[in-house]
Design goal:
The chain is of the alpha/beta class. It is built from 24 helices and 10 strands.
Length: about 525
């Protein structure tokens, strides 16, 4: 997650230096806490939050739970992780729906914070969960705000109530009240009210938002805040809390390159939970906020659970069963490969998914250099093939590969590399489907595998003498054969077989004497 990139790098470097120490002293703890304090302040986290956070970390790091730990450095990392979860809200908080429909959700925030876009994202996510949301255009001040919400609603496939054109005309309180009544009549179970924002906190904005809240009595008031706002996040959040009193927070623009201190400040200062995090410009780029998962991402510990959830949403279980069956019967083709790539694209950005893996923060440069368009190029090559060529790549001769390269806008080398990668992947998958261990290119057969038969024989054949003199070669080979044991000697404890001509299965007198000495029976 780009917003926490600098903070994550600083904390990871601090803990890397800490892991080099076998035992922690108070000076080591103080130095670590000092670096954490600097990293948080550089990330625009509120000063009061930083003081409380580092104070708790220092107190726990100097306690008995670290002194008695087998690995004190890991224990300190765990403490920082737990305290990060605490200032991010502790437990995940979901939307609370009304017992009697419709559930009214009011959005508030400054202008440009991303309220309108979030309204469309939330509507699309609620529709996936089986709800029937209605968007209400109550932002009648900002130019073209109503038109923007109409476009977003169309993209999300959601219904919208927009009786006024906006652009400074109309009564937003009346529109919001009528929107709730319209949803009740048309049996929409969720109402999302998009309210007006301002470039800064002012009395008129607060009065209008408070009037809409009184008129609609919302079940949730979500405060949408730009994660790149910096130190001003705390003042803005406090002002909205006093004027409107929101029930939850939405962090937008977490994919930006700012320092992201707002996320670590708002929940702690206001006492209100972060419910959603917006991680991109697309309508699908919305995630429920999990404090524990966000803390793991900041500390470069990965977010495997979110990755699994995204995969479960994107992949069809029946299609997965078909692919598994084709792998078992060795009938996996380039057509199946193309379908798998298309399902992966549904999961979103490959960079984002790779970034959820533990330790990927140390490979930031490789992630930045990763080309998302590589999947599109591969898809173009496969689509330029005929159905017969996709099912049987062995028919691809030189002229066919040249035609495919021209049709896809690629080179013959690109086509050759794709076919080669597919062949290697197919061989590995076939081996796994048969219950064997794959031979990874460049690494040889995996230990314990069954694929090294011929290679082992060749190595055995090459183990003899290479002398050019036949008589000398025969003498050296006979010496090697005499030295090589025909069977393993000795027991599992290294006893037996020590004396020439002795029974390898029984310990010698010297072995027995060593055993007696070991147990104190001289």
């Amino acid at each position: 997650m780009a917003t926490f990139g600098t903070l994550s790098d600083r904390l990871t470097e601090t803990f890397r230096n800490l892991r080099k120490k076998g035992q922690l002293t108070p000076a080591d703890v103080d130095g670590t806490v000092r670096e954490i304090r600097r990293a948080l302040l550089d990330a625009d986290v509120a000063l009061t939050v930083v003081k409380e956070f580092t104070g708790r970390v220092r107190e726990r790091a100097l306690g008995d739970e670290v002194n008695r730990a087998l690995n004190p450095a890991q224990q300190v990392v765990q403490i920082v992780n737990e305290e990060l979860v605490g200032i991010l809200g502790g437990q995940q908080r979901r939307l609370q729906f009304a017992k009697t429909a419709p559930t009214v959700i009011m959005l508030a925030g400054l202008q440009g914070s991303g309220k309108t876009t979030f309204a469309g994202k939330l509507a699309k996510q609620l529709e996936k969960e089986g709800h029937t949301p209605l968007l209400v255009a109550a932002d009648l001040q900002r130019p073209n705000a109503v038109n923007q919400l109409q476009v977003v609603a169309q993209q999300a496939g959601a219904a919208i109530y927009a009786p006024q054109p906006g652009n400074g005309t109309g009564d937003p309180v009346r529109v919001a009240r009528d929107g709730v009544e319209t949803a009740r009549r048309q049996q929409h179970d969720v109402v999302i009210i998009d309210t007006a924002g301002r470039l800064g906190v002012d009395a008129e904005l607060m009065k209008q938002a408070a009037d809409i809240r009184r008129a609609t009595d919302p079940d949730e008031v979500l405060f949408v805040i730009d994660a790149m706002i910096g130190q001003d996040a705390v003042n803005t959040a406090k002002a909205f809390q006093e004027g409107v009193d929101f029930t939850g927070v939405v962090l937008s623009k977490l994919d930006g390159d700012a320092r992201g201190g707002a996320a670590l400040s708002v929940a702690s200062v206001t006492g209100r939970p972060i419910i959603y995090a917006s991680t991109g410009e697309g309508l699908d780029d919305l995630e429920p906020f999990h404090p524990d998962r966000m803390a793991s991402r900041i500390l470069d510990l990965g977010d495997i659970l979110t990755l699994i959830e995204q995969a479960q949403q994107a992949f069809d279980e029946q299609e997965a069963m078909k692919v598994a069956e084709k792998l078992a019967t060795e009938s996996f083709t380039l057509e199946d490969f193309l379908e798998q790539m298309q399902q992966m694209k549904k999961m979103g950005s490959m960079k984002k998914m790779l970034g959820m893996l533990p330790g990927m923060g140390q490979m930031k440069q490789q992630l930045e250099n990763f080309d998302e368009r590589e999947i599109d190029r591969t898809e173009a090559i496969i689509r330029s093939m005929t159905p017969g060529e996709r099912r049987n790549p062995k028919v691809l001769n030189g002229s066919r590969r040249l035609r495919i390269a021209r049709g896809s806008g690629m080179t013959v080398t690109d086509v050759n590399q794709l076919v080669q990668r597919f062949d290697q992947a197919a061989k590995m998958m076939k081996t796994v489907a048969r219950g064997g261990m794959p031979q990874i290119p460049g690494m040889g057969p995996v230990a314990g595998g069954h694929g090294g038969g011929k290679r082992g024989k060749q190595q055995k054949a090459k183990a003899g003498s290479r002398s050019g003199n036949p008589a000398k070669r025969a003498a050296e080979n006979s010496g090697i054969a005499a030295k090589a044991p025909s069977a393993p000697t000795g027991s599992g404890f290294g006893l037996g077989g020590a004396l020439p001509g002795g029974d390898a299965s029984q310990p010698s007198e010297a072995d027995l004497a060593q055993i007696q000495k070991l147990f104190g029976k001289g």
